[in-house]
Amino acid sequence: MPDDALIHDASQAMPRLIEIMRRLRDPDAGCPWDIEQDFATIAPYTIEEAYEVADAIERSDWAELRGELGDLLLQVVFHAQIADDKGLFQFEDVANAIADKMVDRHPHVFGDESRDKSAEQQTRDWETVKAAERAARAQSGTLDGVAVGLPALLRAFKLQKRAARVGFDWPDASHVLDKITEEATELTEAADALSPEKVEEEFGDLLFVMANLARHMKVDPEAALRAANAKFIRRFERIETLLADRGKTPDQSDLAEMDALWDQAKSEERR
Q1: pLDDT in tens, 78-134
Q2: What residues have CB less than 8 Å from 2, skipping those under 6 apart?
Q3: Count: domains in the chain
Q4: 23-60, pLDDT tens digit by residue?
Q5: Where is the NTP pyrophosphohydrolase MazG-like domain (predicted)?
Q6: Which residue range forms the structural domain that includes residue 64?
Q7: How many CB atoms lie within 10 A of CB 60?
Q8: Would you call 87 helix, strand, or coil by DSSP?
């Protein structure tokens, strides 16, 4: 029988978690579900847990954030254990790789460079170091290294940010607004006359330009859309509450009534 002392020792936080995952993945005595997983099957959970961390922060729920960070950490440990099982690398290699990267990218903290620089200058220095790292990995293209697995809106934002670094950018937001008008017109025309595939293409073009507008206006498009989603949920739930006071549900109402209640919900928020 394996020694269970470590898995019950709360004073050994990281070694304990790593050992728990090793036991879960043990081919002879582990959990059948955990044993069957691989990088690809776990990746969606990793993305989901990252968003749940962001959600807890958005709601300022610090007790939940602690738990969500643990869930996200488990994903890292899970991937590292799969890699260990395959003989690729171990958790220690993951931790040391990011530690080395942080030291290399902060010579003003861990080296002899001056700390007398703005956050903006540090961001430029960071990007210079990352560009050198991409070059060392033979990623010579401007857009190389922007992760395919990012949410599409965030990836559009990052692709445009990369292109802007080499001068491929509109000079100011007014030009982006003109492009949005152009793309919206093309989408309207496509909706009336073109195939579903072409309509989808034109819609994608409009979203892509909207992401560019966010960049010019220094807005995080993902955060902005999350906030809009939260506002919609909040106001629609208020509509449901107001309808319930009238003994009704949304499917027993109509657009005119719900639109009026939406305006009421907006008005209440502004008081």
Answers
A1: 999 999 999 999 999 999 999 998 998 888 889 888 878 787 777 777 777 777 776
A2: 23, 29
A3: 2
A4: 999 999 999 999 999 999 999 899 899 989 988 998 89
A5: 37-110, 176-236
A6: 6-105
A7: 8
A8: coil
